[in-house]
């Protein structure tokens, strides 16, 4: 296939037959994020390259190997965002939001770009749902942020996911840890990849999440940071665990989680599944108490997470979880005579004004072919409009599932059809036993409340 008809490697189209699934996840995520006090932020797809060097870190895989960086026509170095935290922190600083009442809580639904080797659950353009919370150092904030992600997964009935937490300390406790890591990796220096040889001096912790199989085998036996935590960090980590217990959120402590980005301090966590192959981390996050100061602001504790939407969807599909059906068509108006054409046009527009999903023929089909097409798209109702209907002022609508018909007056067609549809919907909703019991999500309410 030529370049004109094949999308770049590592990207994926989202076709109409699937897009409702992502819309569902977006709606559930944003409703839960708002219920936890987060408000939406939208930040640019590209930022100054320097931002990611500073925040994500010079020695990370993301910055060293994976960024889409280019000079724009004005000669600035620009990078497509590989993640969302840096841009949100930049926006907080740029707009002076740090002087507002704390905490400042943001959620986002974004695309991200990383030049990685594509495989199941790993793309070059992918999507994240995330939250960032600025201004609280309390371990209760950690538990709330983790609790939000946990609530989201519960709402989707995802049981094949477990939460792993760790603390990677603060710059104070990290000095001793770096020393121990350096000593350990120096003993294996000949086996390390070239990138990791370079990391040994500058940032030995980054060797712990190198993707090369040899480096990861060596890293698996390296000293763990939990053994080097200072008293404050130990107390904070104990507080996080206590607050998770209060909220009855199950977790395991995994001292090997370090996360792949440099800004983290103290709590780090991941929600991991074994149902989606090698890329099993669906959600990752943690504290980054030093980032805002690193970017030139005053010290401001912060934390957040992001989850990969493609991995989330894969997990939902692989474990057979509920997705709502794609929105169907309420009515197909069949035009049986050129004399009825304008009436069909007007009625279609009137019904669409009521936000009903209405289709009509735009391809000069015969009546028979229009019927066939209405069937193919799964229209719930059809109505035929010809000379007879115009003259008699009454139209017969047919329920395509039950075969029931009803005669509606042409001059009040739209309102009468809406009542008919709502009566029918009520009956069908009360039969619907598939949707998870999640309370008041508009997306799960059956969708159609057009009156
Ligand atoms: P991250 O671990 O780099 O963290 O990415 C978060 C999630 O994005 C991953 O757990 C994974 O589900 C998804 N993801 C990452 N790379 C890819 C890829 N190439 N293809 C598909 N999905 C991917 C962050 O990005 C941090 N900003 C999270 C955070 C927010 N920490 C604090 N606040």
Model description:
The protein has 451 residues and is of the alpha+beta class. Helix content is 38%, strand content 19%. The chain is built from 15 helices and 16 strands. The protein has helices at 16-35, 49-55, 61-66, 85-94, 139-155, 171-186, 194-202, 213-219, 231-246, 291-294, 309-318, 341-353, 367-376, 387-392, 413-431; strands spanning 39-40, 46-48, 69-71, 77-80, 104-113, 125-134, 162-167, 252-253, 265-272, 281-287, 302-308, 331-335, 358-360, 381-385, 394-399, 405-409. The strands form three sheets. Strands 1-5-6-11-10-9-7-8 form an eight-stranded mixed sheet. A hairpin with a 5-residue loop joins β15 (394-399) and β16 (405-409). α1 (16-35) runs antiparallel to α5. It is elongated, with a radius of gyration of 28 Å.
Summarize the structure.
With 451 residues, this protein is of the alpha+beta class.
Write the layout of secondary structure elements.
Layout lengths: L15 H20 L3 E2 L5 E3 H7 L5 H6 L2 E3 L5 E4 L4 H10 L9 E10 L11 E10 L4 H17 L6 E6 L3 H16 L7 H9 L10 H7 L11 H16 L5 E2 L11 E8 L8 E7 L3 H4 L7 E7 H10 L12 E5 L5 H13 L4 E3 L6 H10 L4 E5 L1 H6 L1 E6 L5 E5 L3 H19 L20
Parallel strand pairs: 1-5, 7-8, 12-13, 12-14
Antiparallel strand pairs: 2-4, 3-4, 5-6, 6-11, 7-9, 9-10, 10-11, 14-15, 15-16
The structure holds histidyl-adenosine monophosphate (HAM).
């Amino acid at each position: 296939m030529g370049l004109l008809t094949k999308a770049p490697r590592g990207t994926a189209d989202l076709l109409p037959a699937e897009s409702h699934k992502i819309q569902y996840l977006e709606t559930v995520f944003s409703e839960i994020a708002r219920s936890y006090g987060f408000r939406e932020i939208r930040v640019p797809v590209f930022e100054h390259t320097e931002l990611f060097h500073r925040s994500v870190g010079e020695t990370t895989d993301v910055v060293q190997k994976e960024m889409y960086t280019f000079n724009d026509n004005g000669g600035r170095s620009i990078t497509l965002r590989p993640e969302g935290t840096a841009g949100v922190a930049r926006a907080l600083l740029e707009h002076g939001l740090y002087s507002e009442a704390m905490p400042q809580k943001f959620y986002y639904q974004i695309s991200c770009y990383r030049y990685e080797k594509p495989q199941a659950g790993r793309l070059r353009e992918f999507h994240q749902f995330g939250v960032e919370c600025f201004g609280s150092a309390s371990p209760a904030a950690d538990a709330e942020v983790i609790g939000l992600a946990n609530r989201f997964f519960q709402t989707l009935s995802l049981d094949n996911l477990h939460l792993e937490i760790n603390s990677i300390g603060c710059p104070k406790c990290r000095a001793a840890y770096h020393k121990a890591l350096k000593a350990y990796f120096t003993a294996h220096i000949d086996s390390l990849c070239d990138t990791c040889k370079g990391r040994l001096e500058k940032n030995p912790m980054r060797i712990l999440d190198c993707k090369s199989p040899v480096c990861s085998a060596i890293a698996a036996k390296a000293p763990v940071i939990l053994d080097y935590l200072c008293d404050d960090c130990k107390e904070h980590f104990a507080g996080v665990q206590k607050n998770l217990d209060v909220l009855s959120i199950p977790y395991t402590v995994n001292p090997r989680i370090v996360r792949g980005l440099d800004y983290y301090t103290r709590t780090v966590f991941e929600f991991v599944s074994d149902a989606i192959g090698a890329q099993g981390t669906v959600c990752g996050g943690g504290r980054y108490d030093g980032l805002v100061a690193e970017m030139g602001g005053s010290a401001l504790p912060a934390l957040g997470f992001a989850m990969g939407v493609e991995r989330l969807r894969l997990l939902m599909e692989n474990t057979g979880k509920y997705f709502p059906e794609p929105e169907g068509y309420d009515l197909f108006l069949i035009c049986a005579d050129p004399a009825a054409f304008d009436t069909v046009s007007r009625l279609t527009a009137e019904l669409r004004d009521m936000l009903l999903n209405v289709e009509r023929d735009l391809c000069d089909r015969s009546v028979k072919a229009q019927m066939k097409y209405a069937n193919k798209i799964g229209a719930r109702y059809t109505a035929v409009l010809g000379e007879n209907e115009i003259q008699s002022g009454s139209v017969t609508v047919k329920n395509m599932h039950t075969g029931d018909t009803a005669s509606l007056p042409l001059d009040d067609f739209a309102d009468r059809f809406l009542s008919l549809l709502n009566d029918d919907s009520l009956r069908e909703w009360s039969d619907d036993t598939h949707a998870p019991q999640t309370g008041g999500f508009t997306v799960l309410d059956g969708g159609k409340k057009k009156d």
